[in-house]
């Protein structure tokens, strides 16, 4: 098993500690957090080993799980990679694209692997239909959350929308052509609601909305492609797949048939893919362990995390204008 250590023991860091400790892919060595009071409480409650410096933790492990504030991702990752350690970085990968690109180059130089924590890639609803998403030409996403002071130190684009940006980039096999965006701050010092329109070179258009001042939570994406509509509810972990095929000459009397202006008849079929429930955070962590063990490309590589950050930062720039 791989020896792993966690940097950062905040809300998400504690979840990572628990899951790594439960996993049969890792041995949890311990954690580091600059807040000694919090660290001692965690040690007393769970018995995890506490390291009093980042360097000591990095030296003791094979994999460094970085669950610190985004501003410190780069510094922590550089220290770990230079010592030949594999790194798992919570999203977004870093604070700037330049930092992310340097991490990519450094990881290649040191021969280590890195993965970015875009957890929605491992959402069971998305996993159940990802193979059915084939050359989508219009995508619409809504990621709405009730207000929570935690995370409002960054724009809603980097807090919420980046999840959908990454998911979209993973299924649209085309470079980004143009981005339009708007948004506003309502409660926070940074934008609380934003909308972005991403146009790809192959003609696909994605319309994304993210808000952290909604009255209800929603995390839905809709993919429209030739003869199919696919809906993914990331929150309730449900999917809907509607497909159209050429109608048979003698359709069943209960078949749902549509006829276009040219007289072509299409029959509508409803599919219900099985959603295999999982713990998405555990799945992403264990997938990373498998990539290390098998020497394969991680499911969400540093390059993919950088691509999502690049688009997200462009949206932030446009929203700020």
TrEMBL record:
InterPro entries hit by this protein? Gfo/Idh/MocA-like_OxRdtase_N (IPR000683), Gfo/Idh/MocA_Oxidoreductases (IPR051450), GFO_IDH_MocA-like_dom (IPR055170), NAD(P)-bd_dom_sf (IPR036291)
Q: Which GO terms describe its molecular function?
A: nucleotide binding
Q: Which domain of life is it from?
A: Bacteria
* Pfam families reported for this sequence: GFO_IDH_MocA, GFO_IDH_MocA_C3
Name this protein carries in UniProt: Gfo/Idh/MocA family oxidoreductase
Where the record annotates domain Gfo/Idh/MocA-like oxidoreductase N-terminal, the positions are 3-118
Q: Which SUPFAM superfamilies match?
A: Glyceraldehyde-3-phosphate dehydrogenase-like, C-terminal domain, NAD(P)-binding Rossmann-fold domains
Q: Where is the GFO/IDH/MocA-like oxidoreductase domain?
A: 155-216
């Amino acid at each position: 098993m791989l020896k792993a250590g966690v940097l950062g023991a905040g809300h998400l860091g504690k979840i990572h500690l628990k899951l790594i400790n439960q996993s049969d892919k890792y041995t949890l060595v311990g954690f580091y957090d600059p807040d000694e009071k919090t660290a001692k409480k965690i040690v007393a409650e769970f018995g995890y080993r506490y390291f009093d410096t980042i360097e000591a933790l990095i030296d003791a492990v094979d994999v460094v799980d970085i669950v610190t504030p985004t501003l410190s991702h780069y510094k922590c990752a550089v220290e770990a990679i230079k010592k030949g350690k594999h790194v798992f970085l919570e999203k977004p990968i870093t604070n700037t694209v330049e930092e992310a690109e340097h991490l990519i180059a450094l990881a290649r130089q040191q021969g280590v692997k890195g993965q970015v924590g875009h957890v929605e890639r491992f959402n069971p609803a998305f996993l159940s239909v990802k193979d059915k998403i084939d050359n989508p030409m219009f995508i619409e996403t809504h990621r709405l959350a009730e207000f929570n002071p935690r995370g409002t130190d960054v724009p809603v684009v980097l807090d919420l929308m980046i999840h959908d940006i990454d998911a979209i980039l993973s299924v649209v096999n085309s470079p980004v052509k143009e981005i339009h965006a708007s948004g506003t701050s309502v409660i926070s010092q940074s934008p609380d609601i934003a909308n972005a329109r991403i146009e790809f070179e192959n003609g696909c258009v994605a319309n994304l909305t993210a808000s952290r001042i909604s009255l209800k939570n929603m995390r839905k994406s809709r993919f429209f492609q030739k003869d199919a509509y696919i809906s993914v509810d990331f929150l309730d972990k449900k999917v809907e797949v509607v497909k159209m095929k050429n109608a048979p000459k003698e359709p069943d009397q209960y078949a749902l048939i549509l006829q276009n202006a040219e007289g072509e008849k299409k029959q509508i079929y409803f599919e219900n893919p099985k959603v295999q429930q999982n713990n998405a955070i555990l799945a992403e962590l264990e997938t990373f362990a498998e990539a290390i063990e098998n020497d394969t490309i991680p499911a969400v590589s540093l390059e993919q995390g950088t691509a999502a950050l690049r688009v997200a930062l462009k949206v932030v720039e446009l929203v700020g204008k």
